[in-house]
Amino acid sequence: MAAVPGEAVVAGEKLQKVLARTGLGSRREMERWIEEGRVEVEGKRASLGDRVTERDRISIDGKLLEPAPAEQTRCILYHKPTGEVCSRKDPQGRRTVFERLPKLKSGRWISIGRLDFNTSGLLLFTTDGELANALMHPSANIEREYMVRVMGAVDEDVLARLLEGVMLDDGVARFSDIQDGGGDGINHWYYVVLMEGRNREVRRLWESQGLTVSRLKRVRYGNVFIPSKVKQGQWAEMDPKEVKGLYQLARLEPKKIKRNTIKEKEVMERQFGKRKGPVPTAPGRRSPRKPGKK
What we know:
Layout: E1 13-14, H1 15-21, H2 27-35, E2 39-41, E3 44-45, E4 51-52, E5 58-60, E6 63-64, E7 75-80, E8 110-112, E9 120-126, H3 129-136, E10 144-151, H4 156-164, E11 166-168, E12 171-173, E13 177-182, E14 187-194, H5 201-207, E15 212-221, E16 224-225, E17 235-237, H6 240-250, H7 262-273
Parallel strand pairs: 9-15
Antiparallel strand pairs: 1-4, 2-3, 2-5, 5-6, 7-9, 7-17, 8-9, 10-14, 10-15, 11-12, 13-14, 15-16
């Protein structure tokens, strides 16, 4: 937009927007931090309305912030194997999900939700912390679909209770949908959908019925399914349409999308080129449903 004659052009971007993009919290939370005096810019206490550039040094509670992320967004999906943790560093020295992701020249990858150590499947990452926070907020009501293998006898009464709601330690929880995935003997596959992301919620729901989860894999987050070509330990760049879909789910205005580099494209081609053979799926897997359909 052209500047109005006689009006000063203000450089930079609003401080709370930059802070939100780092993944520290929502814009409103960042505004509170600024009002509480927790934020400094170039060694001086920040005020609401301050604007910053990439060259400005920003501190939170006296700790220097990492370089501010670029305004352009990147989003990737990752097929997490079991045996990896979702933290950046692990005191026990276990592998983390961040170790296999492409390196960034600016900003950092922020995980949209988590999966526990023994759960595999779809994880989404973005460089936009505001997007990540909005998608993870309970009010977003975003569907998460899991493929689960259950050990034990499951009858219609059990399924009805899991759909109606079960009282857990942290409140009532339930599946919004359960689909039979087939199987023989004491092991049976199901596809279940949750509308929230509480810790170990899928496992705890089945355990509340005296059943054991022997395998758990997330196959969908919102509108994003895990592609068959992306095997465990591999990542893939999300296309612009998928990224815009995430912003729509988060009820945010889409940001410009940063393209991956030629080197990263070559890495993707190499990792997919090594794959051979069909994707292992649970018995009786039906065609993917559109979110919300039952």
